[in-house]
């Protein structure tokens, strides 16, 4: 999912023009716009990264369960082993589903 980032180049050009030709109010306004757009872009990037992390959460949980099962199977009850195997299966299904979409 691609989010609509602000074009900071345009905002920077506005700042340059206002600093060359604008009044004090224009300078402050253009700097505020540049700052706001930068903050918004950082927020959008965080959202995009969060979305990707949520999409991959079942895969990551499945991988962790597999690693845990490989290392500690001898210490687990049959119920714990079964739960780990279910998590591994869900992780593999999520991975296949994500690969089919990409």
**Could you name the ranges where pLDDT drops below 50 across 5 or more consecutive residues?**
none
Q: Give the domain tally.
A: 1
First CA to last CA: what distance?
A: 11 Å
User: What portion of the residues fall into strands of 2 or more residues?
Assistant: under 5%
Helix content: over 70%
Mean pLDDT: 90
Task: Please compute the radius of gyration using only Cα atoms.
Answer: 24 Å
Mind summarizing the main beta sheet?
Answer: none
Overall structural class, as computed from helix and strand content, comes to mainly alpha
Shape: rod-shaped
What is the H/E order? HHH
DSSP strand tally: 0
Number of helices: 3
Structural summary, described in words:
The chain has 102 residues and is mostly helical. The chain has three helices and no strands. It has helices spanning 8-21, 24-72, 78-101. The protein starts with 7 loop residues before the first helix and ends with a helix.
């Amino acid at each position: 999912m691609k989010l609509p980032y602000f074009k900071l180049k345009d905002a920077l050009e506005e700042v340059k023009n206002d600093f060359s030709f604008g009044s004090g109010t224009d300078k402050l306004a253009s700097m505020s716009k540049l700052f706001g757009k930068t903050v918004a872009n950082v927020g959008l990037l965080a959202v995009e990264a969060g979305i990707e992390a949520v999409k991959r959460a079942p895969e990551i949980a499945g991988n962790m369960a597999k690693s845990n099962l490989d290392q500690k199977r001898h210490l687990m009850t049959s119920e714990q082993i079964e739960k780990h195997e279910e998590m591994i299966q869900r992780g593999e299904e999520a991975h296949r589903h994500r690969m089919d979409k990409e």
